[in-house]
Amino acid sequence: MISFILADLRRFKGGALAVVVLIALSVALSVAVTLQERAVRLGSARAAEKFDLVVGAAGSETQLALSAVFLQPSPLPLMSGAVLEKLARDPRVSFAAPVGFGDSADGRPVVGTTTALVTALSPTLAEGAVFARLGEAVIGADVPMRLGAQIKPMHGAADSGGHTHVELAYTVRGRMAPTGTAWDRAILVPIRAVWQLHGMGAETEHEHEHGHGHDHGDEAPDGAATEDHDHAVHVEPDAALDEHFDAETPGIPAVLVKPKTMGDAYRLRQEYRSETTLAVFPAEVLTRLYATLGDARSLLLAIAIATQAIVVAAILLVTIMHVGARRRQIGALRAFGAPRRAVFAIVWGELFLLLLAGFALGLAVGYGAARAISAALASATAVHMPVEFARADLPLAMWFAALAVLVSIVPALSALRLSPAAALRA
């Protein structure tokens, strides 16, 4: 019987292929939406795992989290450096690492920070060592540079027309192990080098917005004051690190904090949610973003399911018409003694196989589309987004299998209603 069904499908391979493709496209949309939403959720959650608490100036929680954790460029106000001093001295804090943004090199963000953050992101470096002097840098796992390479930072991004800082060229001293986060494409340098490179000091500490400079000099990046070209900027690349912060510390856009306990984390967040500062758990910010993402996913899935319903209805109509066109063949089978259940099984089996083949092809196409989208997003953000099936996908497969069984019954029943004599006379 299987060989008969396959032979019959080969006779009508054009129509069979059209049915398979239609089913595959409708299924692929559902699969791609489901897998991609899960990939974004898992990838971003894993990227935020290393960051317990972020403290910044009062403003947008989402903007603070996206800038500090995912290194997305955005205008962050500066908060007083005294906040960093207070956090660094707090017995509830394992480490408080400032981050300063604004420069780039070869399209990759140059982030000023401390050795504590490098160690937290990559306890064991893939190669080399952590920076020990102002003119040294540690690169992320995805930065295509070798140890000893020279990095000439550019103010802002290349597409914004920033100028290259000629006062300092960083030397790559180490490479972090892969983290699966946006920091894999970052270049980490001593934050004091960033401050000095932009002429920052106690006298220049004040709040400003990214992209809004003073009456003279360059536009200031987040975490770096404007540079006055009336005064020469000098950075000594061989100077030893000084990671002691006091009340004279320049303004900073954000501090990544590692509390010692969960209780300390909540107390610190409460303490630094004030009129001048903001403390957020990146995971909580992501949860709110997931809610929005989930709403979009629900809408797309509803559209996909509606599309599937329309496709199935169209295929059902075409199949019933196809059965009517094959009245003579079905009548001949009945006249030659084929039992009713055999005729039923043949007609039902043909449509069921087509639906099953379309579902399998749709799974493959949807999975491939999700992988391609995730690869594009990972290339842009460096956040690894795993595309994988889960137990939650099983009901979708079972629903489609049940639907295929039920839909295939309709044309099979219509075939049984044909009288052998009437069918042969047709």
**Percentage beta strand:** 5-15%
**How many β-strand stretches?**
11
Overall geometry comes to elongated
* Radius of gyration using CA atoms only: 31 Å
From the helix content, strand content and strand pairing, which structural class follows?
A: alpha+beta
Order of helices and strands: HHEHHEEHEEEEEEHEHEHHHHH
Main β-sheet description: 11 strands, mixed
Which ranges are low-confidence, i.e. pLDDT below 50, for 5 or more consecutive residues?
202-221, 223-231
Gap from first CA to last CA: 25 Å
Detailed description of the structure:
- By secondary structure, the chain is α+β, with helices and mostly antiparallel strands.
- 50% of the residues lie in helices and 13% in strands.
- It contains twelve helices and eleven strands.
- It has helices at 2-11, 13-48, 61-70, 81-89, 115-121, 191-197, 262-271, 282-325, 327-335, 340-381, 394-416, 420-425, and strands at residues 53-57, 93-105, 108-113, 127-128, 136-139, 150-151, 154-155, 170-175, 187-190, 254-259, 277-280.
- Strands 1, 2, 3, 4, 5, 6, 7, 8, 9, 10 and 11 form an eleven-stranded mixed sheet that branches.
- Strand 2 (93-105) and strand 3 (108-113) form a beta hairpin.
- The longest helix is centred in the last third of the chain and has 44 residues, at 282-325.
- The two termini are 25 Å apart.
